[in-house]
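Protein 1 of 2
SEQ + STRUCT:
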Amino acid sequence: MKIEACAILAALLFHSLSVSAQQGETAAAAGFSKDIAPILTKKCVACHGPEKSKGRFRLDTFEFLMKGGESKSASVVPGQPAQSELFRRLTARDEDDRMPQKDDPLPAAQISLIEQWINAGAKFDGPDPKAPLVTLIPRAPHPEPPSSYHHPVPILALAFNPDGTELAAGGYHEITIWNPNEGTLLRRIKNVAQRTHSLDYSPDGALLAAAGGSPGQWGEVAVFNPTNGARVRVLGSMPDTALTVSFSPDGSRLAVGGADNSLRVYDVPAGKEQLVIQQHADWVMSIAWSGDGTRLASASRDRTARVYDAKTGDLETSYTGHQGPVFAVAFSGDGQRVYSAGRDKKIHVWDAKEGKEAGQIGGFDDDIFKLLVSGNWILSCSADKKIRQHSADKRELLRTLAGHNDWVYSLAVDGKSKRLASGSYDGEVRVWNLEDGQSLAAFIAAPGYPAAGETVRASTRE
């Protein structure tokens, strides 16, 4: 009996030591970047970030997290969860006091991770404590796109390759590549963010840049090999969706704007962020390079459009003539003028140096989403389901391209063949001849979905 009792006691002791060791290993394994940053980004940054900071408390960077807010209590006290205001708020029983507010409490497993991290010293394991938390999170491969689409997705992004033989379109967790003449699918590029809002080919066609993300959670700008679909590099992550992307004329730099109100410029060969420009008070909806690559223009929901020195990021001028959010911007061919448009249903023409209005182009029935300049043409698309082609010199309407049954969100132009591609909310892509306005092709850009000719329906918005 004594032997059995000793054996039982020994087993219990071994089990206790084993559990203790496992707990110690778990605590040691609770890292800030891989465990804590994802929780805070998903559940806390929306109310305690750059756009909104309840209690004057921000935690969108490690540096801000450790500073705390207007409360005199320290947000995080290394080694002491009970003395840490963050942990107290996460575990509070009073719903008015608990974080996150107006949401379910954090699961016990996530609270345990935060407690273990604080107990272990609340150490930072990232490269820069001032970096947004979203940039610290290790990225797993994106989910696979649907093998076959049961319904189309809005076409928010289109881009012709430099020789005009292929047309890229944004999909769901993918970029689809099409033959623009026949509307046939050529290939699918995977490992892409949930939504792609903007696409642009490098001037030599070797790279395809994609800006997108998951709304309200994170944004991403990545470059792909458009031939084999390999993801070459993720240039950057941001706290909210990336909405617009554009290569510089020489292809060495990439500009990105997004829902974090910032404009970023990357060195493409080095894969490094060069500039972060924070001049807007709302989403950056569109960006454009001047023809010589020395200036950048931006359009924002804050009702302004701006021009910057592309090398330094310094603000050169602002245009404040819009009466609503600005969704689109483009430079004139000579770089002397800027065109911008949005919710006020007009194309504003203004001086790129002084920011003074030089004219307007009207005749639109709804929001204008996109502007392109090709030669002497100003091309635009609108929520009124139409594409318009104006002359840049006289600002006269040359033709209206009608045929879409829903809002037209995206445009891409092939200057060599004088073709224009347009994409709409109902998933349809149309290709047009800009010399005579004829429709050359129409298809639904959703692999596995029936052909456009069989599926075009009246819009459900009316």
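Protein 2 of 2
SEQ + STRUCT:
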Amino acid sequence: FLVAARKLGNRLRDVAREQLDVVAKMNAMMGELLNVSGALLVKLFGRIFEENKRFQERAAGVRDIGIKRAVTGTLFFASIGLLGSIGLALVYGIGGYLVIGGTLTIGTIVALGAFLGKLYSSLQNLTNAPVDFATSIVSFERVFEVLDLPLDIEEKPNAIVLHNIKGSLEFENVSFSYPKDDIRPLSEVHRFGETQEVKTVLSEEAPIFMSQPELDTGLQRAQIHSQAREIALEYVSFRAEPGQLVALVGPSGAGKTTLTYLIPRLYDPVSGRILIDGMDIKDVTLSSLSSQIGMVTQETYLFHDTVLTNLLYARPGAKSDEIKAAARAANIHDFIMDLPERYETVVGERGYRLSGGEKQRMALARVILKDPRILVLDEATSSLDSESEALIQDALGRVMADRTSIVIAHRLSTILSADLILVMDRGQIVERGTHTELLSSNGMYANLYKTQFNQPKQ
């Protein structure tokens, strides 16, 4: 019994792992294709039939592995029951023969049959234990792995509560590089059933033509100023005084967004310090640090809920007048009042029922409601039409008033009045100064400005 149970337990464990992986692939595909953007892409490229077929294939895989697991377990337990029945049949058969010969009595045979039935029942229950444990160990592997993972950002035991700050922000020789996947704890463990373990969502393997390395002639590297590097930020130093507007400009991939992620401690720098009002942000509590910083990222995220709920996420206890005042300051109140249910209107998944400009103004209203001392704007006017940009620029003027503001912008027209402009390239600050000073230096900023404003008319 126990030998058979051990072999079956190993077999069921392998099947359970395979089942988790198949389900993970199914979930990953559904997450990619059934969200708003994925469904729109499928329709635009006319791939409905192909994706329906792909879904059926993945669903069939989930069905087949489920049947395989059920059949494997059922056959084992049916075999155990059959062995028990055979044993009882032998007892009654041989016992009956002995009763006829006068060796045993009927009562003895009945008693032996009852004892044997209880023995088989106990053995079967004992057999189930290693089988259930073997299948459960697959889930335990993931649970213990998660429990053993260290915290990415740890708060000091005696951290200081940050409150009533003026808003000065200083970077002192800050360097940062993103952690590599191969040094993560337990990275060599295959995480069964996790969608991040799915290498490709639609294709089962990489295309053949991608497996061959391209020949590097050096021509492309000579033509393009690449931002690819291992160190994201290198010895970055600057100071923003309370109420100042500091603008970050430079080519894509220069490290502007990474720099802003270090301010609320989404990551910790490898070296150097970040100070707010002279205090190292590593010495303050994470909650108090977050309460002093407001951030509008490149892609505005809205929950699949009402306008009111999305705004209240910044400050759950805000009053109705405060919410409307924040919406007015962000130039979004009039739009909200024109919606069918006004502030109770559901914005849809990731806010797909709103335009890009409307989502950006919603994000600004949410930040205004939070009322932080330090404001971080990551390309808040990118990819917007002129009317939406004008509304947001008007709102930004009110949002940034009396706040220390760190603004990333590719459109230089939005930061001409900045108190300090930092030009970044390959993770370093290569130029700094006001708009006039940087133009007169005739460096990278001047070239960016000429590219945007002195293009020949068609």
